[in-house]
Amino acid sequence: MSEVRVRFAPSPTGPLHIGGVRTALYNYLFAKKNGGTFILRIEDTDQTRFVEGAEDYIIDSLKWCGIKIDEGIYEGGEYGPYRQSDRKAIYRQYADMLIESGDAYYAFDTPEELEILRRESENAGNTFIYNGYIRAKLNNSLSLAEADWKSKLENGDPFVIRYKMPLNEDIHFDDLIRGDIVVNTSTLDDKVLYKSDGMPTYHLAHLVDDHLMKISHVIRGEEWLPSLPLHFMLYRSFKWDPPRFAHLPLLLKPDGKGKLSKRDGDKMGFPVFPVFWPYGETAKGYREEGYYPDAFVNMIALLGWNPGTEQEIFSMDQLIEAFTIERVGKSGSRFDPEKAKWFNHQYLQTKPDDQIAIEFREFLRAKGFHFDIVRLETLIALVKERVNFVKEIWDQTDYFFKAPELYDQEVIKKRWKDDTPARLMELRAVLEECEDFSVASTEGVVKSWIENNGYNTGAIMNAFRLVIVGASRGPHMFDIISWIGKDETLQRIDKGIAVIGNISK
Ligand code: GLU
């Protein structure tokens, strides 16, 4: 394969949807797998759809995912500039080349005139297509006398440049994912390549840029597949070799009904954006929801690509190693928010406890609790199996930091017997005697006390848990009391007996 150069070419029209992140990721994996270059090109020729902040948002999102840009607006590169509005001066000459060769023409029809024609066609039950069957009846440099259209240009009348699509020709092209495709040109229209605002349309701009930037493979969303015949025709008209194409399958809603859209996000209870979108109508992001970037990337990678094995956990390096376009499927992939959580759970289990402790310490600080990493590490080891996110550690451990204020009524009803306060007072005395408050020591002492007195272990331990935790949840009791310490344990027993003793009367 000659040098691999791929580009991710988003339009800065808002936040980057996870489908867009996946497109970027597949381009990146393909580039890195093949020792190639990953380019970020900003496609902002449609000024009416430009959204402030979107460009930085896109870059920030890629960075968070660990997708490194080789050439781009900040990185520079041999083929810059990498923002289309900064390349404005380049495009007109290419539109002119096509006019010269007779493959494009000027059209002067106003939007109002076209709208009337569109409506007339619709009323007659047809679709209006600006193409070889009717262009001779419309207002353009093919239908008008040369002197007329030239004087229109000289007068500064608004115009667009349209591609002259030939009629009734079967064109063949191939896609790395879809295989060989044939389209008859009579089904296609004369697309606008250049607008009177002095800006090229996407079709012209991206194609010129892909050519000038020596792009070897165009990997993009399936929504561009219908435009591919036009792009092939344009390559032919310019006499340029086309790159190889790969059109990625859609990402579907969790119920499989339709495309996952930007609007589905918060509405369905999960984010559709990689990071928080802070402008206008704000939207949640995976980063702020507590996802690890490597878990997020792993999850995204498997939406449409499969390694052909049972393996599900892949680091970025492993993805690069394993990725091939041939293993990207044709059909849409259903997005599964539960699976996304599962991935984060898996990654959290493999993170070192001290790293999780650092993150959790920040969370605690915000709640006004200050603990050192070493203490938090032991706590994290106790509960991490039960959580998907660092923020969930709090729900599992709140009682480590503060004595319960409420006690589970159901548990009281079931576990609090007449002799419970007396037993807990005995237990309190036993624990008070304990010099060494480690897990092994407290466990040993309490178990022999239970045994020596012939008490029922379940009855004692359930009531003990109730006064310490407030409910019947949590890890091993001796892990808990050893962590909170002797004084706190004794105080909680006192408080529990006083409060529950009263409630249960
Ligand atoms: N600017 C286009 C988009 O945002 C890029 C399509 C392409 O990759 O060719 O979808």
Provide tags for this entry.
505 residues; mainly alpha; 3-stranded antiparallel sheet; two-stranded parallel ribbon; 11 strands; elongated; binds glutamic acid
Total number of strands: 11
| Associated small molecules | glutamic acid
Strand order of the largest sheet: 3-4-7
- What is the tally of helical segments? 19
The major beta sheet can be summarized as: 3 strands, antiparallel
Poorly predicted regions are none
What Rg is obtained from the alpha carbons, in whole angstroms? 33 Å
What's the rounded overall pLDDT mean? 95
3D shape:
elongated
| Strand percent estimate | 5-15%
Question: Based on helices, strands and strand pairing, what is the structural class?
Answer: mainly alpha
Q: Secondary-structure element sequence? A: EHEHHEHHEEEEHEHEEHHEHHHHHHHHHH
Straight-line N-to-C gap: 82 Å
What share of the residues lie within helices? 40-55%
